[in-house]
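retry 2 of 3: previous attempt timed out while embedding magnesium ion. Reduced batch size to 1 and resubmitted. Inputs unchanged:
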Amino acid sequence: MKTVYTCFCTDIIHEGHLNIIRKAQEYGNVIVGVLSDEAVIRYNRFFTKNLNERLEMVKKLDGVSKVIVQDEILYDKVIEQLRPDYVVHGNNWQIGPLNAIRDNVVGLLNKYGGEIIDVPYTYNEKIRRIDLRMRQKLAMPEYRRKRLRKLLELCPVVKTLEVHSGLTGLIAEKTVVENDGNLDQFDAMWISSLCDTTAKGKPDIEVVDMTSRFRTINDVMEVTTKPIIFDGDTGGLVEHFVYTVRSLERMGVSAIIVEDKIGLKKNSLFGTEVVQEQDSIAHFCEKISAGKRVQLTDEFMIIARIESLILEKGMDDALERAKAYVEAGADGIMIHSRRKDPQEVLDFCDRFRDMDKTTPIVAVPTSYNSVTEDVLQSHGANIVIYANQLTRSAFPAMEQTARDILKYHRALEVDERLMPISQIISLIDEL
Ligand code: SPV
Ligand code: MG
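retry 2 succeeded.
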């Protein structure tokens, strides 16, 4: 009897999957791989069922002789282990980023004469609705909120992109790339105070009130499923901060990052060029503890952001604060720097890890952008935030277009660098 392998990356079985199994049965004994959480998060949406539930779901299907876990997107391990005569998959993997996986399978099967069977992909209105429903479930607060903690367990580094609108949210949500034969996507979204206020044409000085910031969150949440890290600036008065924590947690935000500045906060990238005051350790600890006290779930995170390096108060001050903030209940530490050289951030990470092996570290490599995620991770960073690059790339493009329309008195000259509307609207899901 020949062996047929197919991998299911799903938490719901529909006629498309049954069709694959029927087809596979024509070739031999059917083994189904169930893709692990670690693997799926690099190119698809999260699952709403855990691995055991997914394994049970597939075991119940008629025509399946064995179920295994496939814990990598690429098939090297699983094909070496099973040496299937055939690998069956929907032909949707012949196009787009999934084609990299197909190429990987073709290469592996060619080594010993295995064959690939591309089954016409079943996609109809019913399946579209099922898929949409699963996505919308993931957007619900109870599914979304806990996902950042889950990602911290699953990912070597949680890749986070700045978003400030529904459209930028969709870019963070849907961008998947193939790179060196592997697939990748962002894990989480950062609602930056800089970019949120810039999009509203206002300075980054806490002048845009929380109600307005929450509207941005809501716009993003309406169209995405990925977890959200909210830039809470200084958090304001302790008496106000507790309300912010409660609201964010209820909305399904996963974390707030609050910085240890007080009074009129300015953007950190100005450093000491403007007057900015750092909070006392005792008062900032009080703020963290107050936030932790009002939190209702174990899922929400309050991450303390240390401005000592920005304000040139030195490494020892940064480390002393990190220790105190964790003791006050902080679920993570963000260390910020405006140097071009990543060394001071890496030194902080090393020294913090000497005293604390587990508290997540967040890094924002805006000015020290030569550092890679791998290097940050090797020094103990867990979350990397690309805090403003979407805004900074969109602004010059829009400004140039405005200039050129004025210059030519028509839009023809700018047209070739514009995305067709049909492509933009293909990003947007219809209910
Ligand atoms: C933001 O994105 O608003 C931040 C990061 O707080 S930074 O602008 O570098 O201060
Ligand atoms: Mg900010």
